[in-house]
Amino acid sequence: xxxxxxxxxxxxxxxxxxALIEAAKNKSYPADIALVxxxxxxxxxxxxxxxxxxxxxxxxxxxxGKDRAAFDAAMQxxxxxxxxDLVCLAGFMRLLSPGxxxxxxxxxxxxxxxxxxAFKGLDTHRRALQAGxxxxxxxxxxxxxxxxxxxxxxxxxxxxxxxxxxxxLGQRVLAVEHQIYPAALRLVAEDRVRVVDGRCLxxxxxxxxxxxxxxxx
Length: 217
Ligand code: GAR
Known about the structure:
Strand content: 15-25%
CATH topology: Rossmann fold
Distance between the termini: 36 Å
Largest sheet: 7 strands, mixed
CATH superfamily: Formyl transferase, N-terminal domain
Bound molecules: glycinamide ribonucleotide
CATH architecture: 3-Layer(aba) Sandwich
């Protein structure tokens, strides 16, 4: 099977992007990181991508103002130019229009630093600590129009320690993100993930609810 052409969309440092690039260096990995696209020309991840010989593009959202559909159309043109099969959002901090998410339905992944459906949105580690969560983690899911929703492909959990700072907890979750994002993209690129009634089946087996997760550290 030929490797899927993946675009990674970033807005910042791109550590998840780097984890995907590392995974794709293995010739047996079913996806090729064909493009890194940023909405910010100063995103640190662009430097990492170029250092790894990955093609980069920038579509600045600012000139589009509130016209999300026009910004998304500009991104779509770039993705088509590069013959992209799958899109991975990796710290891409823009809301997307329904037209764009619809076009990429079940072909666009996102990583979120919480065990969805808990803690959608920003400041997830601080909110998990404030809520007294015993378990926290990260989720890779298909993107739907609603933010931080959509069928879960893979989750990874960590135990929350009584002594945790926001940073310490965030670092353990980030380490989990770097494991589950390449693993989830592998499953999708190998065509092993189907969405039935809003839920992912992997090799025909439903992804377990996050309540079934045991923390790894
Ligand atoms: C990651 O923790 C990612 O899960 C989060 O932004 C960070 C980006 O870091 N994404 C979201 O919060 C999206 N809702 P990175 O640029 O080093 O990958």
